[in-house]
Amino acid sequence: MSEEVNNGGCTEESCAGCAHAGNCESKKEDLRAPANAYSNVKKVIGVISGKGGVGKSLVTASLARMMKEKGYNVGILDADITGPSIPKMYGIHEQAKGTEEGIYPCIAKDGTRIMSVNLLLEDEDAPVIWRGPIIAGVVTQFWSDVIWDDLDYLFVDMPPGTGDVPLTVFQSLPVDGVVIVTSPQDLVQMIVKKAYTMARQMNIPVLGIVENYSYVKCPDCGKELRIFGESHIDEIAGELGVPVLGRMPIDPAIAEVVEEERFYEAKNPYLDEIEL
Ligand SMILES: Nc1ncnc2c1ncn2[C@@H]1O[C@H](COP(=O)(O)OP(=O)(O)OP(=O)(O)O)[C@@H](O)[C@H]1O
């Protein structure tokens, strides 16, 4: 079930007397959180998935690396508050510092600016046991209180699903578009549609779909093994009218760079051609 939101197309005249006028999605700017006064972010891209564990954080960081390699100023807002993984991928274990003006993101070895709840906790292994509205508030603060400085692209790694946090990000941040990450399993069709529909209901453009775990390449004969079954991604993308941005195999070289916390030098050849 979705919240009662209006998808736009409203005019001042039609709003007058409308029962939803007070919380109408067409008046989106009312819900927008202000950016920090020292931030100048040109594009905000959300990375979402209908379900957990499909490699959303990996895709977020890969897109950030791709844009970094192209010479852009890039940041990652880790909105996956209860399962933050971005700082560790980049080998960052320090705490973020703040001043009166705001909080400074940590800077990875490749220059990527990163903010995550793990950079604010005294013990990075401590679990975050907060209720939805508190978590959503923290994500908004990552936009309003963090000094992002000049960024060409800010990638937002969302928690899986269509709960409080994605809703808050869509309502409070000026998201220019989302990338949906998925895997080739049977349930996927329905799950991708849920993520797609949520973004569309919030008037956020869907830039395309990335399929992860598409295949494994046999190290001996080079044959592509589809261990999660045949992909339905072209069908789904066609039905929704969005492009397939990439298909990633399970790649031990990528797993290694994550395990060794060296993502600042990662190259993900499977997503190189994406235009954002
Ligand atoms: N194509 C791949 N090849 C090798 N390892 C991968 C690949 N995709 C993801 N992984 C690894 O699988 C693990 C889970 O990936 P990731 O953390 O990106 O998933 P997620 O969808 O963000 O998870 P969550 O839903 O819990 O936030 C990570 O250790 C990641 O490095």
UniProtKB/TrEMBL annotation:
GO molecular function, one term: 4 iron, 4 sulfur cluster binding
InterPro entries: Mrp/NBP35_ATP-bd (IPR019591), NUBPL-like (IPR044304), P-loop_NTPase (IPR027417), YlxH/NBP35 (IPR033756)
Annotated positions binding ATP: G50, K51, G52, G53, V54, G55, K56, S57
Pfam families named in the record: ParA
Keyword annotations: ATP-binding, Hydrolase, Iron, Iron-sulfur, Metal-binding, Nucleotide-binding
Keyword Membrane set for record: no
Domain of life per record: Bacteria
GO biological process, one term: iron-sulfur cluster assembly
Record's subunit section: Homodimer.
Biological function: Binds and transfers iron-sulfur (Fe-S) clusters to target apoproteins. Can hydrolyze ATP.
Family designation: Belongs to the Mrp/NBP35 ATP-binding proteins family.
Record's protein name: Iron-sulfur cluster carrier protein
Biological source species: Schaedlerella arabinosiphila
